[in-house]
Design a protein that fits this description.
Layout (H helix, E strand, L loop, with lengths): L5 E4 L14 H11 L3 E5 L4 H7 L14 E4 H4 L1 E5 L3 E6 L4 H18 L12 E3 L4 E4 L7 H7 L4 H13 L3 E6 L3 E6 L4 H12 L6 E5 L17 E4 L3 H12 L1
Parallel strand pairs: 1-2, 1-10, 2-3, 10-11
Antiparallel strand pairs: 3-4, 4-5, 6-7, 7-9, 8-9
Helix pairs in contact: 1-8, 4-6
């Protein structure tokens, strides 16, 4: 770990529970980590969700925030802190691309005979600008229901495999507790973290990635192609232990 200069984290089920606020202990641990390492947070969440779920509950000395980088929608956007949060780039989907994705979901539901949940909380398929996200129970579903809906990923794997056939020009990945994320082809967590590494002049041996979805088809799995260190965690408590070990 002595060679590692940047640690990149997934958000849901890694730094926080799914769409739940960052807790006080994790906030303090991340603040301690930012004093000695660069930190990136990359997630399928939109920047608005980052604000509500992460930034609103994160308290850290302003001088350390320049070591923090945010990559919403699986790295389709990069934010850095220079007196305030500003976007460095955004890989926005066109209206034609979004239309194609929404139509592909309808086709995929029919082809797989997928049964939608009787009750949907919030949006089923959400336009996040740089990404389109399917949430099996809706974007605002209670955590307990989400955790029980597809814990072994079998429901989403069937959908994701068919979506990859119907959307060959896009990246399709499973993320969070109930989500499938669609971005432009080549725009994924590997391109997001890899681009940030180049921007900061970091080598493979200087970066560690921490996430809960490093399994095949998971939205963390693309990170394995970078040749960086990767650590799989089973939840927030695992991540806290890892950060404590690094700080100590």
């Amino acid at each position: 770990m002595k060679s590692v200069e940047m640690i990149a984290f997934d958000l849901d089920q890694t730094l926080t529970e799914s769409k739940a606020p960052l807790d006080g202990e994790m906030s303090r641990l991340l603040c301690g980590l930012l004093k000695i390492k660069k930190v990136a947070v990359i997630s399928g969440a939109s920047f608005k969700q980052f604000e509500n779920q992460f930034l609103k509950h994160f308290s850290c000395a302003p001088e350390n925030l320049e070591n923090l980088f945010l990559l919403p929608t699986n790295g389709a956007i990069l934010y850095e802190h220079k007196g305030g949060w500003r976007s460095v780039y955004q890989h926005e989907l066109s209206q034609a691309e979004k239309k194609k994705i929404f139509e592909a979901f309808e086709k995929t539901f029919a082809e797989t005979e997928f049964k939608l949940a009787k009750k949907i909380y919030g949006e089923l398929i959400e336009d996040r600008g740089t990404q389109v996200t399917f949430s099996g129970l809706g974007s605002e579903a209670p955590l307990a229901l989400k955790e029980a809906w597809d814990s072994d990923h079998t429901k989403r794997k069937v959908l994701a495999d068919t979506l990859r056939i119907n959307l060959p020009d896009f990246s399709v990945s499973i993320g969070g507790a109930t989500s499938i994320d669609i971005t432009r082809k080549g725009v994924d967590k590997a391109s997001g973290v890899g681009g940030l590494m180049r921007r900061l002049g970091l080598l493979n041996k200087q970066v560690l990635y921490v996430g809960d979805a490093l399994f095949p088809g998971g939205n963390d799995a693309s990170l394995l192609s970078l040749g960086i260190f990767c650590a799989s965690v089973s939840g927030v408590n695992d991540t806290k232990k890892l950060i404590r070990d690094i700080i100590s």
